[in-house]
Amino acid sequence: MTLVDVRQRTQQLAERFASRAEEYDRTASFPIADIDDLRSEGLLGLMVPTRLGGLGCGFEDYVAVAAMLAEGNGATALVFNMHASVTGALAGIPDDLARALGAGDDFFAVRDQVLRAAVEGALYGVAISERQAGSRLSLVETTYEPEDGGYRLRGHKSVCSGAGHLDAYLVAARARQAEGPEATVSYFLVTAGDGVKAEGSWDPLGMRATVSTSLVLDVIVPSERLLTGVEGLALPMAYAMPQWLVASYAAVYVGLAQAAVTEAVAYLKSRHAAGTRSSVPGSVRARLGRAKAATDAARLMVDHAARLVDTQPGEAETNRFLYQAKLIAGDTAMDVVATLSEACGLGALGRGSPLERIFRDARCGAIMPPRSDVCADYLGTTALGGDPMADMERPPW
Amino acid sequence: MTLVDVRQRTQQLAERFASRAEEYDRTASFPIADIDDLRSEGLLGLMVPTRLGGLGCGFEDYVAVAAMLAEGNGATALVFNMHASVTGALAGIPDDLARALGAGDDFFAVRDQVLRAAVEGALYGVAISERQAGSRLSLVETTYEPEDGGYRLRGHKSVCSGAGHLDAYLVAARARQAEGPEATVSYFLVTAGDGVKAEGSWDPLGMRATVSTSLVLDVIVPSERLLTGVEGLALPMAYAMPQWLVASYAAVYVGLAQAAVTEAVAYLKSRHAAGTRSSVPGSVRARLGRAKAATDAARLMVDHAARLVDTQPGEAETNRFLYQAKLIAGDTAMDVVATLSEACGLGALGRGSPLERIFRDARCGAIMPPRSDVCADYLGTTALGGDPMADMERPPW
Amino acid sequence: MTLVDVRQRTQQLAERFASRAEEYDRTASFPIADIDDLRSEGLLGLMVPTRLGGLGCGFEDYVAVAAMLAEGNGATALVFNMHASVTGALAGIPDDLARALGAGDDFFAVRDQVLRAAVEGALYGVAISERQAGSRLSLVETTYEPEDGGYRLRGHKSVCSGAGHLDAYLVAARARQAEGPEATVSYFLVTAGDGVKAEGSWDPLGMRATVSTSLVLDVIVPSERLLTGVEGLALPMAYAMPQWLVASYAAVYVGLAQAAVTEAVAYLKSRHAAGTRSSVPGSVRARLGRAKAATDAARLMVDHAARLVDTQPGEAETNRFLYQAKLIAGDTAMDVVATLSEACGLGALGRGSPLERIFRDARCGAIMPPRSDVCADYLGTTALGGDPMADMERPPW
Amino acid sequence: MTLVDVRQRTQQLAERFASRAEEYDRTASFPIADIDDLRSEGLLGLMVPTRLGGLGCGFEDYVAVAAMLAEGNGATALVFNMHASVTGALAGIPDDLARALGAGDDFFAVRDQVLRAAVEGALYGVAISERQAGSRLSLVETTYEPEDGGYRLRGHKSVCSGAGHLDAYLVAARARQAEGPEATVSYFLVTAGDGVKAEGSWDPLGMRATVSTSLVLDVIVPSERLLTGVEGLALPMAYAMPQWLVASYAAVYVGLAQAAVTEAVAYLKSRHAAGTRSSVPGSVRARLGRAKAATDAARLMVDHAARLVDTQPGEAETNRFLYQAKLIAGDTAMDVVATLSEACGLGALGRGSPLERIFRDARCGAIMPPRSDVCADYLGTTALGGDPMADMERPPW
User: What is chain A's pLDDT, residue by residue, as a tens digit (397 residues)?
Assistant: First the structure.
């Protein structure tokens, strides 16, 4: 499947997602049919190397696919984003580096198996956030400790998109004895099953179909499921290569903003008879024009950041652009839906109408971690030559 | 009941409304218990002169009451606003002026009867908007024509808050033969009953409990139910004394913004243990501080406009402030909920939480007619010495 | 002179100031003729009690006068503001409180003499800020220590409006031995003369005619010139009754915003022939309309805060509104000139044109201490029930 | 000279420009030394094809060069922009198209001569705007008519950057008999000399060194100096290929925004001792971070639009991005300097300081035609499938 094929198929999927979005949103239920489509089109293997049967795509491709899917259903795109984060992060660790860090053959075997399974349809997600810690890795309270030749993980994760519907979770946990910001925090790939339980309800303002409930963990995982086989990598990775943590959402919010523009154009055209387009008030046209410009600016920012990830991962400029992408995309999505809902008026905001759903979904963009204010602090701190871990109001991770 | 009493009772009602708001919002059903409370506390007679048993309040009192009620439930406050608009407009027409315009004893008898009924619990509303015309009175397509000694009204009104739950409606209709912007458009007080039928569904983003469905009219009304007994008053009144059309909503949106501030403070305090208030990030404190300042600025604007209505109704400065009040209150409500939802984060936006509901309700503020862009055009046009009817992009009414 | 007289005269003065503003701005020179006008009209005694021959005005009157003067020349209004701050603060200390704090007859004699001199034409100003400390009183490095029965003050003040043109300065200094935020910081009334020297140049973007150079102090002042006769009052007063420190500027910025609106209307009318007002583009009308609404909202906020100062000085609500007034007025002035300069275009921005000067002057509004971000933090902190001294990112004073 | 060379030299020039910017700005005088540098470095031939000795660059290269120059001195970059517009437009007309439109050998000879002269150091500019018409080509009142085998041009141009310092001007004029929006408006290349006279003064808020005075024309030009040899091309070209009219400024404003960021960082670092970077308040860091993100977003937008010009000139998407580039770059420059001046405070805004100058220069960005509101209308109109000439509030040209 060529890249052109991928984008074409994605486009078709987005249209199908759009037709189902209203119901998944209304019922706040997991978009099983959408995921089935992604599976049957091979998109769960998007980030998996071709040697393992995947599509071997990079971050720029991911961004294009995610934005397109979000034009169909933002919630499905977010679920896909989590899956892509796990597979993309696994695929993106250079073998040499992993070996240097301590990864053994066991780890590589697990990694390849997990990636191959994705190609065959396994769906993954991320379990990092907790109620108190939020998304700050250094503060997670889920613990791990050696037991039975593996690690016993215990804790309570929150806002875990797709909890209960996934085949495995990327879990962040701290070594049991460690405390404080210097805690040893590690990543584990935890297979669904006993000791991994979705819990609680999910009935939020927006992004309802992500079904991001809590996940209660009390489970022993084999030692080779410790990421790269070495403890304490979670925090350094978050600072060194933050693409998945920071900017993968951004693509979704660009897609949402574009969906709002598309819907607003369709609505306004339907309200104003053909040939009288000039009857759309100037103030409404101006809102639409500015919204489209802002959306395209956000997209260019996200695309550029993605290209940098592919060409110079981990460099300071790349990471700066990742935070910029999150900041601009999140803020833009909210601004765009606010102004377009005003441009279209109450008639476009009946519950279940696309614009009404997008309005609620987009509200989540600037809120999702790192919040826009945190991004701004990171960017200002680094612009001054400061160190995010030391000089920000509080470290982001 | 003194004014202090009124405000005190209103405060108590608002608290009761708040406790019921989640359910009325979820089910998009009419807030019957809230209305019963308003009735039993005598607030349906707020705008009725004391000589008819009412509280004899002015616009400034109305504004204070409406804002307070909106802190409890914005949708109930909007329904109350419609009732206050009808009773307030009726009570506000000076007898001399009405007589000069052509009102006869019949009209005064009806007016007093309608107002007295409000004191006894009758609930009224407004049926002006239509799907094509929006709120532009000059374009309404509902017609009236003489029949059987009265007037036969036929048409289809939209977004009629409380449709089907009210005792009478203030209906705008055009004389059947008249067309174009110079149409003769008149107001009628139409009693609920045969030929007055709520229709359609109401399931919008926000302000769900207003149950603002359509209203289908095919009914004969007695001639004394033509407002002030003379045809063609709707448009001149809209330009001359626009307080109820323009600014009565504004108070509701100020109340909503304040409710958002109150809820955000409560949420943030609950998230951050006592004694560690400084743990609320500076960026969050700044959002909260700016939101509170903007809310108070909007309130002062609405209060000032209201005082002008009471002291110098119909003057150019008064009307300018009314449009300013609508503009500032509507925009502020949306800005405040946008920034406070970001300050509080996803945890505060679970469906059914107050902030989540207020977020949706507030989106309607700047959208409700006259839209904020229309207000801005009116204000710019009059600042330049122009005539709103002739010089605006399109006349507001 | 009645209050109506005061406002009328102020109005006339503002017109004269406007005619001189271009030259004072261009040459960045002190507005001597404006000050002479203020003197001959008795306005230097605005805040002085009638028993001492002054006009006996309160904060609300001050706000009205300052805003009006700023419509003529913002820089002159700022100089007047400093004078009013000194006289207003002196006049505003209740005798009982001053006595309780330790003030003796000597102090009262000096106070009355200083106030009486203002009525006769003396001009005062404020010397608080320093290069390192900014306006944070707790950090000032100017020291005082007992010497020769009085106090010897030594230090270097910056941004002292009118330095070299004034008859006396209100100087903040720390007791020589004291350091740190708990420093004993006191106010002195320092008469111009030997040991009090204006220094440095003043050639800034805006507010050029304030001539706010540095002031170098090495002078002995009589002990009765220590404010209220007791040391350490500067900081407690800044927190308890911050009207002059926080909100006196706000009135000036409201006046500037109004001046921008007035100039924009005049310019746009001159560009568009009579009778074709509708030829002003809708987007321009909307910018103008929103600017006027924002200006009026800022004015209402400042007026309300001022009324609270007069009726319930020192209360928490009063102080909250003072910070709100500064925040809203400063931000509004900048927003208004930014949008109106865009509405009018380059033709209105020739150097020396009123709008060009106002554009530069207004940029200083949100910047002057307390900066808008500091106000926002104060407001958010207090909204959460926090203590500004303890819980803000850094204390404002 | 390779492209890498070009950018490197440009970088060096920008640094030299920066060192001279204060004086040119203060005296509002033409940046002769900067232009000499551009000349001696061969940059006046940037857009000239290599076959004529030029650098043969495209629009993307131009954008990079212009933005870089603007980091040194925005006014010089604007003058360069005008020169690049003339040479770029001339070089960009495909020979085939020109021939098809009616261009004969005479025209090609003139064109090549003009371009070759640029390589050798001739400096060109644009004379389109007029006091009444603004930049709307269809309304220019400068006329031309046949005389002596050529054309006689008569009229009064305004805001002509570099007037009196240039070797030739691209002049828009209408055929004498034609009136109304359907007027025949043509471009002429008018050589400096008798009958071409700079007039009036230039003393504006910002962009002072462009010396954009009026240009009074009463001159006969040879017929081959009619662009492409055919009348009436000005308007169709403005709609079909608007890159130079719409977006060439945008690059300059991106450069200005970046210069503001650079200056703000330098200023803030100088104010806060090494090692205490965290002492920069969080609110200041956030302003800086958001400003940098916005600047980069604007740059990406301008770069993208420029790439489209090079690869698919004249297509609807290209033109849409050109208007987006102007809108975003102009607004961003103003927003960035507004927030950074607030972040840095009065100390950074002394007259002659870089930030003070950039603040004034940037104010002109969103104002320069097409104004941001006109861009927004264009974008909204085209998003709705409308035709800018027919459906906008007023056509842009």
Answer: 677 789 899 999 999 999 999 999 999 999 999 999 999 999 999 999 999 999 999 999 999 999 999 999 999 999 999 999 999 999 998 888 888 888 889 999 999 999 999 999 999 999 999 998 999 999 999 999 999 999 999 999 999 999 999 999 999 999 998 666 567 999 999 999 999 999 999 999 999 999 999 999 999 999 999 998 889 989 998 998 899 999 999 999 999 999 999 999 999 999 886 545 458 999 999 999 999 999 999 999 999 999 999 999 999 999 999 999 999 999 999 999 999 999 999 889 999 899 999 999 999 888 888 999 999 999 999 999 999 888 898 888 9
Q: How many residues in chain C?
A: 397
Rounded-to-integer distance, Cα A89 and Cα A246, Å: 13
Length of chain B: 397
- Option in B206, B346, B367 nearest A159 (CB): B346
> Could you give phi then psi for residue A216, rounded to 5 degrees?
-100, 125
A171-230 residues touching D, CB cutoff 8 A: none
Domain spans in chain B, listed from the N-terminal domain onward: 3-119, 124-232, 241-391
**Residue C289 class from Cβ within 10 Å (0-12 exposed, 13-18 middle, 19+ buried)?**
buried
CA C207/CA D58 separation, integer angstroms = 45
pLDDT score for A273: 67
Q: Which of B114, B123, B196 is nearest to B153 (CA)?
A: B196
Distance CA D242, CA D314 (A): 8
At what angle are helices B282-311 and C316-344 packed, to 10 degrees? 80
- Tell me, what DSSP letter sits at residue D392? S
Report the Cα B385 to chain-centroid distance in Å.
Answer: 29
Chain A nearest-CA distance from D332, in A, is: 11
Task: Mark residue D206 as left, alpha or beta (left: phi above 0; alpha: psi -120 to 50; beta: remaining).
Answer: beta
- The strand pairing partners of A144, in sequence order, are A153, A175
Q: Which amino acid is at C114?
A: V
The fold of A124-231 is: Butyryl-CoA Dehydrogenase, subunit A; domain 2 (2.40.110)
Q: Which CATH architecture has domain D241-386?
A: Up-down Bundle (1.20)
pTM assigned to the model: 0.96
* pLDDT at residue number D180: 60
Q: Residue C363 is nearest to which of D284, D341, D394, comparing CB atoms?
A: D341
Quote the CA–CA distance of C55 and C92 in Å, as a whole number: 13
User: What pLDDT score does D277 carry?
Assistant: 45
Tell me: cis bond preceding A370? Omega within 30 of 0 counts: yes
Name all chains with 3 or more CB-CB pairs below 8 Å to chain D.
A, B, C
Nearest Cα to Cα of residue A172 among A195, A193, A151: A151
Chain A CB within 8 Å of residue C283 CB: yes
Share of chain C above pLDDT 70, in %: 97
Amino acid at A224: E
- Euclidean distance between CA atoms A92 and A98, whole angstroms: 10
Q: Say if residue B112's pLDDT is above 90.
A: yes
Nearest to A87 by CA among A48, A113, A55, A56: A48
The answer regarding whether domain A3-119 maps to CATH 1.10.540.10 reads yes
User: Helix, strand or coil for residue D299?
Assistant: helix
Peptide bond into B370 cis (omega under 30): yes
CATH topology of domain B241-391: Butyryl-CoA Dehydrogenase, subunit A; domain 3 (1.20.140)
| Closest residue in chain B to residue A370, using alpha carbons only | B345
Q: What is the pLDDT of residue D165?
A: 97
> Which residue carries 């009620």 as its tokens?
B69
User: Exposed, middle or buried by CB within 10 Å (0-12, 13-18, 19+), for B371?
Assistant: buried
Distance CA B318, CA B330 (A): 18
D159 touches C: beta carbon within 8 Å: yes
